[in-house]
C-alpha cells in the first residue's frame, strides 16, 4: 500500500515539476524506488512459495499453515 502511495506521489511530483530538473529527478527517484519495492515484495512472495512447495508440497503452506489437532 505504501509503495502505491509513493508511486502516486512521485508521479504527481514528476507531472507538476514545471521543468525544474531537481523536482523531476526527485519524482523519478520516488517512482523508481516504489517500483523497486513492489518488485522486492513480489519476489519475496514467490521465493517463499517455492520454498514452501519444495519443503511441504503446497505453495501456501508457510503463508497459511494448517493446524492439526493430535489426539
Give an overview in words:
The chain is an all-alpha fold. The chain has helices spanning 2-15, 21-56. The chain is rod-shaped, with a radius of gyration of 20 Å.
What does this entry show, briefly?
The protein has helices at residues 2-15, 21-56. The chain has 71 residues and is mainly α.
Fraction of helical residues: over 70%
**Gap from first CA to last CA:** 42 Å
**Stretches where pLDDT falls below 50 for ≥5 residues?**
none
The H/E string reads: HH
Which shape, going by the Cα principal axes? rod-shaped
Count of runs of 4 or more consecutive helical residues: 2
Based on DSSP secondary structure assignment, what is the total number of beta strands?
A: 0
Largest sheet: none
Overall average pLDDT: 89
Based on CA atoms alone, the radius of gyration comes out at 20 Å
Question: Which percent band covers the strand fraction?
Answer: under 5%
Q: What structural class do you assign from the helix and strand content?
A: mainly alpha
Amino acid at each position: 500500500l505504501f509503495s502505491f502511495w509513493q508511486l502516486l506521489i512521485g508521479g504527481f511530483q514528476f507531472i507538476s515539476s514545471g521543468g525544474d530538473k531537481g523536482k523531476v529527478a526527485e519524482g523519478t527517484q520516488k517512482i523508481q524506488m516504489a517500483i523497486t519495492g513492489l518488485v522486492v515484495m513480489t519476489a519475496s512472495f514467490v521465493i517463499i512459495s517455492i520454498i514452501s512447495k519444495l519443503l511441504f508440497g503446497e505453495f501456501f503452506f508457510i503463508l497459511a499453515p494448517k493446524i492439526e489437532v493430535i489426539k
